Amino acid sequence: MPKVQTARGSKVPFEFSATTENLFGEDLSAEGFIGDVKISGEVEEVGKNFVVRGQIDCTKTFTCDRCLTQATENQMHEFEEEFDRSQVVEDLIDITELLRDTLLAGQPMKNLCKADCKGLCPVCGANLNDGECECDKFIVDPRLETLKDLKLK
Ligand SMILES: [Zn+2]
Ligand SMILES: [Zn+2]
Question: Is 53 helix (H, G, I), strand (E, B) or coil?
Fold first, then answer.
């Protein structure tokens, strides 16, 4: 349960890292997160409230939805949320939900090894990122391919 320190009248920086299981009491390795998630930021008193802002750095591995190769990606997600005094317990704010929501909301609908991944040849199954194969196939305009992806969502 990650909690951050508050102090009236001054900014308090925070920085820690832990596995998703330690952070959320929930193993998110099914989502592909591996290793420690790094969290850094600061808590600032604003009027009667406290603003918590910062960023999450994490690493994710996944299978590309188009070419089916294994890919690893470093992600950075920013967060900022205001908490009122009722949410401050013994000068601490629990930011578990904020972190979890930020992390999950930041995940793409499709996992791609790269934005312009060419995918697999529908005929021979060759990975077209490695070069064109010899197959006689209908070439799909990449812009239409994007539209097709949108419809599937
Ligand atoms: Zn790919
Ligand atoms: Zn082919």
Answer: strand
Specify the residue for token string 């992600």: 75
Helix (H, G, I), strand (E, B) or coil at 44: strand
Helix/strand/coil for 140: coil
* 152 Cα–ligand 2 center, Å: 24
Residue 83 phi, psi (nearest 5)? -120, 140
- For the chain, give percent helix, strand, coil, nearest 5: 25, 40, 40
pTM higher than 0.85: no
134 alpha carbon – ligand 2 mean position (Å): 6
Ligand 1 centre from 101 Cα, in Å?
26
| Cβ–Cβ < 8 Å for 126, 101 | no
| Whole-Å CA distances, 150 to 40, 69, 109, 128, 143 | 34, 21, 10, 21, 11
Report pLDDT digits (tens) over 1-19: 799 999 998 999 999 999 9
3-state secondary structure of 132: coil
Encode burial over 53-62: b for 16+ CB neighbours within 10 A, e otherwise: ebebebebeb
